Amino acid sequence: MATDQTKTESVTIAVMGATGAGKSTFINLVSNSKLRVGYGLESCTSEVQVAPPFLLNGKMVTLVDTPGFDDTVKTEAEILRLIADFLAITYEQGRRLNGIIFLHRISDHRMGGVARKNFRLFRKLCGDDTLKNVVIVTNMWADVSQEVGKSRENELISNELFYKSALDKGAHIVRHDNTVASAHQILQEIVGFPPEPLLIQREMADEHKALAQTLVGIDLQTELQRQAAKHREELDGLKEEMAELMLSKDTKHKSELDELVDALSEVRGQLERVEEESRKIREQAESDRVAHEEQMRKLSNAMQTREKELRALEEQAQEQKTRIEEMQVALEAAELKARQEELRRQRLGDDMQASSAVYQEEIARLRKDFERKLEQARADSARVRERHVPPSQAQQQWSKVFAAQRERRGVFGAMSVMLESFWSSGMSR
């Protein structure tokens, strides 16, 4: 029979990193899943995917595949919304992450601005308190020589621009050689971590903040504003350069002008995308604010209704308490009356018992006296017979006297009178 001790412990681990870092490949390798894998520039995993759970060291492990912030299909704001919503919902449902894997390709020649921005957003998502549950996994070692790979690894560990700050705050860094054994070894370390909520989960679920109000949301908005300002500056520069070339009216500058038009179009497109992304964040923030206010209004109404119900219940409880107290008083009075009645009955019984004893003693005395007098009467009767008194006449006489006395005095009184009369008549003779 299953008991609490035999239940399988559940472990949840999120896998994050840049697009093409090998997140889905890692998950499929270790869990024997079939998540979609993207090898080109276009990301095919732009949604949060949950792999089927598998057993590892007696624990049921679930891996969560997340899209990278540099996704080619969705904007950074959309990716952040996907990840944040998933994390907030699972947190509210009672699921905690035991750890987070952040994959990094050691084959990348350098950790450029996009990669650094991705990791910065990742850190804002996690918060410093959760870094002890973060494992940075470097992979694709087969694509570089050991010397080059080791050099890049040392730079990642020692450079403040890369992973040094996170490692100093408790994060771990390990290698993955693309084998099942290597993946299992990484997971075996993580399954022992105590579950810890991420900063984004505490902000959105516990503090009820809109995504735009969270630390990572604010950081993303700041970054988008910086990008927009940069693109506007580039756009202004290109416009000035175009104006100069157009004024020169020199046909030899036509190719340069065409290049500037293309560059201008590209920068304008980038600016529009950034502004659109910023607009979506603002709209989402406003939508979250309205939704939060509506939720708070409903909560307030529900609390007021609940307060009324509680007051009504308190009044009912008070009425019931009063009735119970009244019933208790009545019960105590009834019990007192019953005890008094019982005592009265006991006293009456004792009195009756005492009277009965006296009565029995009186009867015994009268019986004894009657028997004595009867014996005496028999003796006197014998003497009368000796004097030749007719017995039948005497008996009739005594019967009449006894009947008359019985009517007046009862059986014992008649007997007493008859004996005394008999005794007196005998004595006179």
Task: Describe the protein's architecture and organization.
The chain has about 425 residues and is an alpha/beta fold. It has 3 domains: about 10-205, 3-Layer(aba) Sandwich (Rossmann fold), CATH 3.40.50.300; about 220-310; about 345-420. It is about 65% helix and about 10% strand. The chain contains 10 helices and 7 strands. It has helices at about 25-30, 75-90, 115-125, 145-160, 165-170, 180-190, 200-205, 215-250, 255-385, 390-429, and strands at about 10-15, 50, 55, 60-65, 100-105, 135-140, 170-175. Strands 1, 2, 3, 4, 5, 6 and 7 form a 7-stranded mixed β-sheet that branches. Strand 5 (about 100-105), helix 3 and strand 6 (about 135-140) form a beta-alpha-beta unit. Helix 2 packs across helix 7 (about 200-205) and helix 3 (about 115-125) runs antiparallel to helix 8 (about 215-250). The longest helix is centred in the C-terminal third of the chain and has 133 residues, at about 255-385. The protein is rod-shaped, with a radius of gyration of 56 Å. The termini are far apart. Pfam families: MMR_HSR1.
